[in-house]
Amino acid sequence: MPLSSPDRTNRNVQLTTAHAFDQFQRHKVNLHPNTVGKARGSRDYLQGQLIQIRNDNPNSPRITGEFRPFGSFARKTKVRPLDDVDILVMLNGLDSQVKEGVWTQAACVQITSDSSPLEPFADDDGWVKSSWILNRFKSELKKIPNYQKSEIKRTGSAVVLNLKSYDWAFDIVPALPVEDWSGSTIYYLIPDGRGNWKKTDPRIDQELVTNANQNQHGYLLSLIRLIKYWNVRSRVAPRLASYHLETLLINAFRYGYPAIESNIRWSVPSAFQKLASHVMNSCLDPKGLGPNLDADMTWEDKVKIHNAANKHAQSAQNAVHWEQQGYHEDAIAWWKNVFPNFG
Fold this sequence. Notes:
Shape: elongated
Distance between the termini: 24 Å
Structural class: alpha+beta
CATH architecture of the largest domain: 2-Layer Sandwich
Largest sheet: 9 strands, mixed
CATH topology of the largest domain: Beta Polymerase, domain 2
Helix content: 40-55%
CATH class of the largest domain: Alpha Beta
Radius of gyration: 23 Å
Number of strands: 9
């Protein structure tokens, strides 16, 4: 039950819950439009430089010139601060074949001709080493004048370009489109961190979140960002992986029920309740290409997140209650209990 409030009316008409919540979203949760524009422009410039590398250096990885943005920035579920922008860079996989493991998610790629664009990155048996491709991308990026003072490093699946002029880094992920008999791409292979490849398909992630958001009349993205902010800033529970959290909320709201309120904040209690419930269950990879998203989570961590989400669902419900009663100062106090740095 909501806690009691002083028997008074709120005389500060400017200090409304709606105004405070709007300012919180604008200035602390959502990316600033200028930041989004600069990141997209910087991404486009990078893509042009990668094409130039291909044209100038025959020893660089042969890319097709097609790029596919992915990750939370592309799906518009990123919260402040913007720290990374992900790009799939399509490789030319002509004259190569994929061999999938029976008991593993890993896949291997083998060239079928010495004229394959992947031949410089194949070992003596013709197996294409994704780590060699990543290393070549890393060395070629260092030659671009605008990037020479940037930090460039390699992770398991990507080359990370950390620009000095911006707060965000680019995760550049080489990808091999795998086609069916008709020539349609059925999934992509990206480096697995061990020299081989693993499956992914960001098209499915984008379609799922787009459809779910449309079913919720465009309100789901804002709700996801709010709960992501809580997940990152709150210290009352272990942090969920961003993609896992996003998937849980999409699964909970994807069919339009429960309906998300147009004023968003009134649906925050429901979002926490759904998170508390869904986090206790197994979470399949929505693409059907990898292990469960909760595969590395302990039961103890699930219980802690469940309890924290339920606790904050009640606090959020208290905030909604006092706003509906006209006590905005009390409502705002409860929102401060839910979201760090609210107000």
